[in-house]
Amino acid sequence: MNRQGKDLYGGRDPREVPTYSVAEAAHLAEVPVTTLAHWVAGQPYVAKGGERKHSPALIEVPKGRPRLLSFSNLVEAFVLADIRRQHRISFPKLRRAMRYVSGTMHVGRPLINVRFQTDGTDLFVEKVGSLVNVSQQGQIEIRQALAGRLKRVEWDKQGLAVRLFPLPRAGTPASEQPRSIVIDPRRGFGKTVVTGTGIATLVIAERHRAGDSVNDLAHDYKLAPELIEDAIRFEYRYRAAA
Question: CA 80, CA 90: separation in Å to the nearest integer?
């Protein structure tokens, strides 16, 4: 609901409204665009006997064209990103692991459910270990990667993801990054804003590009310079990758 009391989403949960392009979601989740495209569209492959098939999607996005991800889809991609980057687990094996976790937990989309922090993480690592030749150290790394990502998700009273804190600083582990910017589907149409405000990171970055200094922006917006720097850093990285 907006300030005038109008329902901008037609009664739909804003977390499920198609909002992000594949490219935009890939940046926010820090996963290659081609990888995310396979996750949301499935992947062609050649079966035994030479028959061409198409595997189901790992992340089920709202139907329609162009293909857009919801906030919940974005959380799913964000949680899985480090697993794919660090361990190069194949798309089919990721999908099989998630199907196993979903069936065992009796939760259709475990990655956006707070229970994944406890039961689901262990189930996922257990299944990955049986599908991939991962050492004990590798399994510990997978569990740590998941834990670091899950700590950047905020959950509502029903145990579903409601806010996401993306990573403003490249090359720093998720668990060590500040929660300086946030994505909340109920504010600013799900765009990144400085935490605790409605100030879009894009607006800050555009003013900086136009010549305003970090200190000028910090003064104007009454924010700490570190918050301004994180907003600029995050947006510049996004525009460079676009």
Answer: 12
Which of 74-78, 115-119, 171-175 is the least confident region?
171-175
Residue 130 structure tokens:
């049986």
Contact present, 76 and 89 (Cβ < 8 Å): no
User: Per-residue pLDDT for 229 more than 90?
Assistant: yes
Q: How many CB atoms lie within 10 A of CB 135?
A: 9
The token pair at 95 is: 């999908």
Dist. CA 40–CA 68, nearest whole Å: 9
Please, which residues have CB within 8 angstroms of residue 167's CB and are 6 or more apart in sequence? 30, 152, 174, 177
Which pTM was predicted? 0.89
Exposed, middle or buried: residue 139 (CB in 10 Å: 0-12, 13-18, 19+)?
Answer: middle
Residue 227: closest CA among 197, 194, 199: 194
Residue 220 structure tokens: 């104007």
Q: Tokens representing 199?
A: 């100030």
- Please tell me the number of Cα atoms within 13 Å of 86 on its side-chain side: 18
Residue recorded with tokens 């660090």? 86
Q: Residue count of the chain, please give it.
A: 242
